Amino acid sequence: MTSLQPAVPAGLARRLASMGYDLLLLLGVLALTLLLPHVLIGHFLHLLATPFALWTHLFLVLLVYFLWFWTHGGQTLAMRTWRLRVVTRAGNPLRPAQALLRFLLCWPSLGIFGFGILWALVDPERQFLQDRIAGTRIVFR
């Protein structure tokens, strides 16, 4: 890490609050990048996207959002507010492949009744399951 301040593991409550804030911010991002284009296409071209196209578009928008922020500073907009950063176990910035792995692991982690999030309750370092597998951690700065 390039900062003079030592990185300490982020608390669970702070990480959950950041996730909630990211959800609110993503509603605006998705309204502009997902909803608006499909509404305009439907209105002017009288075409409706298939559910598969909508889910693919959603997945790609989220992929670009998270990979961009995680590989360019290690922080999403909400993580900046809560002073969190995602880094490798050694404290270095994420590589694109590592950020992609973390993103892909987040889906089942949240989708299976939040199992990957609940994992932090039993993990010795209080890390989410996707962070444990991807070799990342979220730190407070």
Describe this structure in words.
The protein has 141 residues and is mainly α. The chain has one domain (8-140). Helices cover 61% and strands 9% of the residues. It contains six helices and three strands, in the order βαααβαααβ. A three-stranded antiparallel sheet has the order 1-3-2. The longest helix is centred in the N-terminal third of the chain and has 34 residues, at 12-45. The radius of gyration is 17 Å and the shape is elongated. The N and C termini lie close together (10 Å).
Low-confidence stretches: none
Average pLDDT, rounded to a whole number, is 92
Number of helices: 6
Which word captures the global form? elongated
Major beta-sheet overview: 3 strands, antiparallel
| Rg, Cα atoms, Å | 17 Å
The chain-level structural class is mainly alpha
What is the number of independent domains? 1
Question: What's the SSE blueprint?
Answer:
Elements: E1 8-9, H1 12-45, H2 51-71, H3 77-81, E2 84-88, H4 96-111, H5 115-118, H6 129-134, E3 136-140
Antiparallel strand pairs: 1-3, 2-3
Helix pairs in contact: 1-2, 2-4
Task: Provide the descriptors you would attach to this structure in a database record.
141 residues; mainly alpha; three-stranded antiparallel sheet; 6 helices; elongated
